[in-house]
Every structure is written in structure tokens, then in C-alpha cells.
């Protein structure tokens, strides 16, 4: 299967590619650096230059049938199939998403209870668990920071999707089942700590997350708790 550039190199910030189609203000390109909204991670933003004109990309989403990635433009442009397009990613925002997303996977390592939800944001992220025992906010924050300081490499691999029938417990987030029917499932491994299906963009090493803060743990039900996480800088 051919991979988009944001999967081949999630650290790349500029790309030259070609226009495939333009429908209203939704631009489809041959390849892209822009992660499309999904799996709790927001769609990327940035800029595209087509025919000497630069416009903002305000969101990136899969088309309804998930067959293509649509870059949502801030204003209309003229573009024809085959035109060259230069992409520039809003790296500052995306890098925070990467740090946050990898951090949420670390929480999945620290808390073995079922994950009921999760959402990545540049300013604040959250993960929800059905907790079997109460957890202490400060203790969790200290554990998380200790792990990050220790470091661990992060890698991705593609496995045949029947692995999920054989090992259903690999799926940690019950509310977000990985897309099936494409043959392979993308797995994200944090060396020695966590291994789960995920389509998101991740860091090379958890050390890059840097110091984190847990401002609150909120009750969302009898056992369901929402853990909010922020990056210290
Ligand atoms: Zn993930």
C-alpha cells in the first residue's frame, strides 16, 4: 500500500506535489504532509502555494468515503489537475499534537483499565478510562514525567488486520476501533511500554514530549474518569 508522506516522515514540514482535484475549497493532492482528522487527533493546518498564490489550509479531513484526503482552503483558488503545489505545514501546532498523542499512549501504559475515549489538542489533551481503583493526580503526573525523562523509542509497523481477531486486547480504546477492510492495521510501539493500533503521527522518542502537567482528573461517571494533560512548554 502506498503511504502518504506524513506517515513516511512525520517530521517533514515542506513538500512539492501536484493537484489531483479541486472541489469548491477542498483540494486533493497526489501526496500530503497534512494529517487528516482522525483517531482523536485534529487535522493539520498550514499553507499551500498553487500557481504563485499562497492560501491557508484551515483543516484536513478524509472525504466521506475515506478514499482521499481533502485540504480545506480558507478561500477559493484556481487550480487544475497536474498543477504543482507546494505545501508548508504548521509545524508548531502539529509537533504539539505529536507530543500530546505519544503522551496519551504513555497514559495507556500507566493505566491498564479500559480506555473509553481520548482527544488530542495543541493546548490540552484528554484520555478517559473506566478506573478500577482511584488514582492520585500528582502521583500519576510524577510517574508520567519519570517515564518521559527515561526515554523510549517509538516506531510503527503494519500488521495483517486479523491480528485484532487473534489479540482483541491490543485495541485499547474501545470507542475508537481501527478502520478494517484495508488489509493491514497500523500499529504504534513505544519500546517496552505500549503497543496498540493507531493512525496518528508520533514522536521518535518519548523524551521529546518534555515535562507534562495534569491539571485535573474529572469524574465522567461512576468509574469513568477524564484525565487532562498539558505540556509544560
Ligand atoms: Zn493513538
From TrEMBL:
Domain spans labelled Alanyl-transfer RNA synthetases family profile: 1-227
Record's keyword annotation contains Cytoplasm: no
PROSITE patterns per the UniProt record, alphabetical: AA_TRNA_LIGASE_II_ALA
Top-rank lineage group of the source organism: Bacteria
Entry keyword annotation includes Hydrolase: yes
Keywords: Hydrolase, Metal-binding, Zinc
Compartment(s) of residence: Cytoplasm
One Gene Ontology cellular component: cytoplasm
SMART domains in alphabetical order: tRNA_SAD
GO MF annotation terms: alanine-tRNA ligase activity; aminoacyl-tRNA deacylase activity; ATP binding; metal ion binding; nucleic acid binding
A GO BP entry: alanyl-tRNA aminoacylation
Co-factor requirement: Zn(2+)
Family annotation (Pfam families): tRNA-synt_2c (PF01411), tRNA_SAD (PF07973)
Protein name from the UniProt record: Alanine--tRNA ligase
Amino acid at each position: 500500500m502506498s503511504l502518504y508522506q506524513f506517515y513516511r516522515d512525520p517530521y517533514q514540514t515542506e513538500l512539492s506535489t501536484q493537484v489531483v482535484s479541486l472541489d469548491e475549497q477542498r483540494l486533493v493532492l497526489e501526496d500530503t504532509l497534512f494529517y487528516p482528522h482522525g483517531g482523536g487527533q485534529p487535522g493539520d493546518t498550514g499553507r499551500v502555494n498553487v500557481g504563485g498564490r499562497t492560501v491557508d489550509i484551515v483543516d484536513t479531513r478524509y472525504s466521506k468515503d475515506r478514499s482521499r484526503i481533502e485540504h480545506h482552503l480558507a478561500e477559493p483558488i484556481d487550480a487544475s489537475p497536474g498543477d504543482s503545489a507546494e505545501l508548508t505545514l504548521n509545524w508548531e501546532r502539529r509537533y504539539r499534537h505529536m507530543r500530546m498523542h505519544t503522551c496519551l499512549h504513555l497514559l495507556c501504559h500507566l493505566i491498564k483499565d479500559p480506555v473509553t475515549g481520548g482527544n488530542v489538542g495543541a493546548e490540552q489533551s484528554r484520555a478517559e478510562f473506566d478506573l478500577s481503583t482511584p488514582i492520585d493526580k500528582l502521583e500519576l503526573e510524577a510517574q508520567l514525567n519519570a517515564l518521559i525523562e527515561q526515554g523510549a523509542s517509538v516506531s510503527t509497523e503494519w500488521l495483517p488486520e486479523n491480528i485484532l481477531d487473534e489479540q482483541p486486547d491490543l485495541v485499547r480504546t474501545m470507542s475508537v476501533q481501527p478502520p478494517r477492510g484495508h488489509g493491514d492495521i497500523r500499529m504504534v510501539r513505544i519500546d517496552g511500554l505500549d503497543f496498540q493500533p493507531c493512525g496518528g503521527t508520533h514522536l521518535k522518542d518519548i523524551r521529546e514530549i518534555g515535562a507534562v502537567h495534569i491539571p485535573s482528573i474529572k469524574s465522567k461517571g461512576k468509574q469513568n474518569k477524564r484525565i487532562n494533560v498539558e505540556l509544560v512548554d
